Amino acid sequence: MNFETILIDKNEGIATITINRPQKLNALNKTTIFELHTALKSLESDASIQVMIIIGSGEKAFVAGADISEFANFSTSEGKDLARKGQEMLFNFIENLKKPVIAAINGFALGGGLELAMSCHFRIASDNAKMGLPEVSLGVIPGYGGTQRLPQLVGKGKAMELIMTAGMISANEAKDVGLVNHVTTQEELMGFTKKIAEKIMRNSPVAIAEAIKAINANFDTAKNGFEVEIEAFGNCFGTPDFIEGTTAFLEKRKPNFPGF
What is the tens place of the pLDDT at every residue in 137-153? Predict the structure, then answer.
């Protein structure tokens, strides 16, 4: 499929998705959200891909926000529909993918851009990155999960401060509060991120998918995370990956997981 706003590169089990709207600092619009959903759904079912990385084009921005021109004149009902559809199509969708998705934050990640990064399974930032949720300065609040995921990552008090001040924090500040896992130079960002992806790929894809499901359950008030973990743990025993992993351990060799 040909995409208008994103680029995809596949190499040795890793798919890199580049949001390619440099003239708009990679701001999210309806087309970008739809294309990201379509690409991620296809990559999830692609047996050759084990890890996905999302990055922005250029050196200034990961995603500098949502494209405000698309919704500046929306009504109340249109605003609710925008948030609901966006969360379902992309942000919640990414969070619950069975394959790991890493955000490589290579510049500004603001508003919907930070919400996109937070929906990924974890985040790595370049040292020039700036992050924030400035929506209240526009008379609105984060609508793509920002009020939910930011407190999960940095705690209620810090999330309240960041959202109410509409301020930005640096990459190092973001690391200090747990918003990102690592900070690198911009030149090293993709190489470092791919090294972590390679470490992930040494392990069982099936077990990783079950781990994602169990971890996410801890943050879903409708679920008992411990029960989800018990079910997921037991399910692993019935997989070829479990047989290969335990056999390789006993035979003192590296496993060759069959995966999905």
Answer: 999 999 999 999 999 99
Strand 51-56 vs strand 6-11: parallel, antiparallel, or unpaired? unpaired
CA 99 to chain centre: 11
Read off the tokens for 116.
Answer: 């996109």
Whether the Cβ atoms of residue 174 and residue 125 lie closer than 8 Å to each other: yes
Question: pTM value?
Answer: 0.96
Q: How far apart are CA 51 and CA 49, in angstroms?
A: 6
Total H helices, total E strands in the chain: 11, 10
Q: Calculate helix-pair angle for 146-154, 112-119, nearest 10 degrees.
A: 60
Which residues touch 35 (CB under 8 Å, ≥6 apart)? 3, 4, 5, 6
Q: Which residues are catalytic?
A: 115, 135
Residue 175's contacts (CB-CB under 8 Å, 6 or more residues apart) are: 125, 181, 182, 183
